[in-house]
Design brief:
Length: 826
């Protein structure tokens, strides 16, 4: 009988026993004590009421007892249920209960958070989206054989895959019948990802391990290999199985003190060790080997990881190096370089005899202590030279190389190219030995300084030439307008005086631009074959008036008189400027000496001085006994507008004109000067064998007039308008063109009427040379006159001067321009 049936049966039994006893006992008592039927009736009624009351009260007590008992049982069940639920939640896994039809009748909170609340649904529909139980379902197997089954499932949510581990067990009733199934769900996505990463890492490790360039062994401290890589198999010629069955000592020569087995105590003591040994291959070949050993943990036990590297080539190279070291030493000595060898540990330095000879020391004049070398380094160079050496010692640079100054025995300094390299280091990388060379680069440094000075002067010259060209166009307008004013105001002496002053100032400005062009080598030259001595004599008539009476002038002009190809006027200007500069350098009494001579530039002279070409040169020397110059002033004397004179005492253009003129004549200048001693300037000009030309200077008429049609091409509006006005004022007719293209077009339109073409050399669209070529193709006998503020070099490059065409140099002077035009037309 089930517990459910016990409570109502006990109540019925108690009620039946009590009722039977009540009926029989009460009737017997009533019949015995009461005879009157009326009393019996009332007594029966009272008995019935009493029975009802007593049975109700008894039934109440009995029901209350059973109800309290049931409540106690229910409380116990609820407590057990709460403990069960808490226990299920504490597991940390998802738990579900499913009936035999795979309908979910329970899910704990963790499972609901994991996959969602699907109570009342079939598991295969909720989890897999299927219509029947899955093949291989662990719960299905549990229902079939009553055993516990496990499985793994992967469920995709569209963005990623989630992996779960399932444990299914059957639930039985009291008779052992399977009525439901319990399924525990654990998410193992992170574990699966970790397994994938671990597998990838294992594959990568295996790939790196097997493809490493060195042979790698992992073995126990007492011997026995745990792992070897493919390179070890290839290198030694053994199979992997053979190596795994060998001992580390089997890889070394017998009785070898540097084998891996013999070094094991040191490896275990220090944790790592690098040493050299020899290994024996399967064919008996002896292999020089470098071993890097380190103590590691491998699969839970202490082991030794060894890298074996074949150093056969390195050993051969070291042997070759040792054999060639002496030859290298002799070769460097033969090349003129000094050799030094620094033992860093002891501080001693070996210096070769050539090293000492570079600085003027004898073989026994120099100690081996490195500190003595430091004292020889120029104080300004010492800090950064030592810094570069330390950088190389720290392996921050592959080669130590500096250029610095060293003090010679006589106290002077030489520039040295210092190169070196650490040749030996200890096992921990500490430098032990450094070897290097010294090369004397004093001459190269001097040539570099000369080159920099020449480049600087070239750049300043280009700037000066550009300024002068632009200024020439402005001056052309000023000078031309002054000319027109002078013509118009000829009868008004008061106003004419102002116009004359404007013209005078413009002429001075024009002379200034000519000086700038002279410095920049952009003035137009008229070279002839001239005698240098005769040119000096002519110049003496001029500069003798410039020198004060307290200054003595002496001139030495030996025979034969050297012939040079030069513009004599410009050479005269050079001589006058040099004498004037020498005069200003002598504060009181003194002497100026001028001399000429000839010399020959050979390869040795060119190499030591850094200029010139092989051949004969005429030399012009101007010396003075003035105050002299320091090196800083000497470096700037040829710069335009640089002067040491007071404001208003000089323009600073004298020596810059000298520089430009001599360079334009393919010459060279050498300056020697000492404070308190004086200055000597030597000018070298290429000498030629031909005799000098006869002088032939033409004079231009002062007041030309004429008639005819002139094609004027000029891109500057102010210059074109002015030139047109001057030509019109002097009887000429003018056709204007703003550039070369217009000039060609207008010439084609008036080719038979045009008497002269006046072209600016530099114009946009088409320059003067190109326009001239187009015009001459159309009419070869056309007369052409060029005008330009550009240089003789540029004009020569364009072939204009060599073509025999006329040239007017800007700033245009109306009288000269009109005279040249008249001469060409006549």
């Amino acid at each position: 009988m089930t517990p459910k049936n016990r409570i109502p049966l006990s109540i019925i039994t108690a009620y039946a026993v009590f009722g039977t006893a009540w009926i029989f006992l009460s009737d017997s008592l009533l019949i015995h004590h009461f005879e009157s039927s009326a009393n019996v009736i009332w007594m029966e009624i009272a008995k019935g009421l009493a029975y009802v009351a007593l049975t109700s009260f008894g039934l109440y007590l009995l029901v209350r007892y059973h109800v309290r008992k049931l409540l106690a049982i229910q409380t116990t069940i609820e407590g057990e249920k709460a403990r069960f639920e808490a226990m299920v939640q504490a597991i940390g896994d998802g738990v579900s209960v499913q009936d035999t039809e795979f309908r979910i009748i329970y899910q704990n909170r963790i499972l609901k958070e994991m996959v969602g609340d699907f109570e009342g649904k079939h598991c295969f529909e909720a989890y897999e989206g299927k219509t029947a139980a899955c093949e291989g379902c662990p719960l299905r197997k549990a229902f079939a054989d009553g055993e516990i089954h496990k499985a793994e499932r992967c469920i995709s949510d569209g963005d990623s895959d989630h992996y779960y581990h399932l444990t299914a067990s059957p639930i039985r009733d009291s008779r052992g019948t399977i009525v439901a199934g319990l399924e525990i769900v654990r998410e193992i996505t992170e574990q699966k990802n970790m397994e994938k990463r671990l597998a990838h890492s294992e594959r990568k490790f295996r790939m790196l391990f097997d493809h490493a360039p060195d042979a790698i062994f992992i073995h126990l401290p007492d011997g026995g290999f745990l792992e070897v890589n493919d390179m070890a198999v290839q290198w030694l010629g053994y199979s992997r199985q053979q190596l795994m069955n060998m001992h580390p000592r089997d890889l070394s020569l017998q009785d070898q003190s540097s084998g891996i087995s013999e070094k094991m105590d040191e490896v275990l003591m220090h944790g790592s060790l690098i040493f050299e040994t020899t290994s024996v291959a399967s064919n008996g070949r002896i292999i020089p080997t470098e071993v890097k050993a380190r103590v590691i943990q491998f699969e839970g036990q202490q082991a030794v990881l060894c890298y074996f590297r074949d150093i056969t080539e390195r050993k051969l190279a070291e042997k070759s190096f040792r054999e060639s070291e002496e030859r290298w030493h002799f070769a460097l000595e033969g090349s003129g370089d000094g050799v030094w060898d620094w033992d860093i540990t002891s501080g001693n330095v070996y210096y070769s005899d050539q090293w000492k000879n570079i600085l003027g020391f004898g073989p026994d004049d120099f100690d081996k202590n490195e500190n003595l070398w430091k004292k020889l380094v120029h104080p300004d160079d010492r800090e950064w030279v030592l810094k570069e050496i330390k950088r190389h010692l720290r392996s921050e640079t592959p080669l130590y190389m500096t250029e610095h100054r060293l003090r010679c025995r006589d106290g002077s300094f030489k520039w040295i190219l210092d190169r070196g390299k650490v040749m030996e280091r200890s096992e921990d990388g500490t430098p032990l030995r450094m070897v290097g060379t010294y090369t004397d680069i004093t001459d190269r440094k001097r040539l570099e300084d000369q080159l920099r000075q020449a480049q600087k002067m070239e750049a300043v010259g280009e700037l000066a030439g550009g300024i002068a060209h632009d200024f020439n166009n402005i001056l052309t307008a000023i000078i031309g307008r002054s000319y027109l004013l002078q013509v118009k105001l000829a009868s008004n002496s008061e106003l004419l005086a102002h116009a004359d002053q404007i013209a005078y100032a413009a002429d001075r400005a024009a002379n200034l631009t000519q000086s700038l062009l002279a410095f920049s080598r952009e003035q137009i030259m008229n070279p002839r074959r001239i005698h240098l001595n005769k040119t000096v004599e002519k110049s003496a008539k001029l500069f003798s008036k410039l020198v004060r009476e307290n200054i003595e002038i002496s001139i030495t002009l030996p025979d034969p008189d050297p012939v040079i190809l030069a513009d004599e006027v410009q050479i005269e200007q050079v001589i006058i400027n040099l004498v004037a500069n020498a005069r200003d350098a002598i504060p009181q009494n003194g002497r100026i000496h001028i001399a000429t001579e000839t010399t020959y530039f050979d390869e040795k002279f060119i190499s030591s001085h850094g200029y010139g070409r092989v051949g004969e040169y005429a030399v012009l020397t101007v010396s003075d006994t003035g105050t002299g110059m320091d090196q800083k002033t000497k470096a700037r004397i040829f710069e335009p507008f640089f002067t040491t004179k007071e404001i208003g005492k000089g323009t600073g253009l004298g020596l810059s004109i000298v520089y430009g003129t001599i360079k334009q004549h393919n010459g060279h200048i050498n300056v020697y000067s000492e404070i308190g001693v004086g200055t000597t300037i030597r000018i070298y000009l290429p000498r030629i064998e031909e005799d000098a030309d006869e002088e032939d200077r033409k004079k231009i008429p002062h007041h030309p007039i004429g008639k005819g049609l002139i094609l004027l091409a000029e891109d500057e509006d102010a210059v074109r308008t002015l030139t047109k006005t001057i030509l019109l004022e002097n009887g000429y007719r003018v056709i204007e063109a703003e550039n070369g293209i217009q000039a060609v077009e207008k010439f084609q339109q008036n080719r038979d009427d045009i008497d002269l073409v006046l072209l600016d050399v530099i114009m946009p669209s088409m320059n003067g040379k190109e326009a001239c070529e187009e015009i001459l193709q159309s009419k070869p006998d056309t007369k052409v006159l060029f005008m330009s503020g550009y240089t003789g070099d540029i004009l020569g490059q364009q072939g204009l001067l060599s073509g025999g065409y006329g040239l007017i140099q800007k700033p245009l002077k109306p009288h000269d321009m009109l005279a040249i035009i008249r001469e060409i037309l006549e």
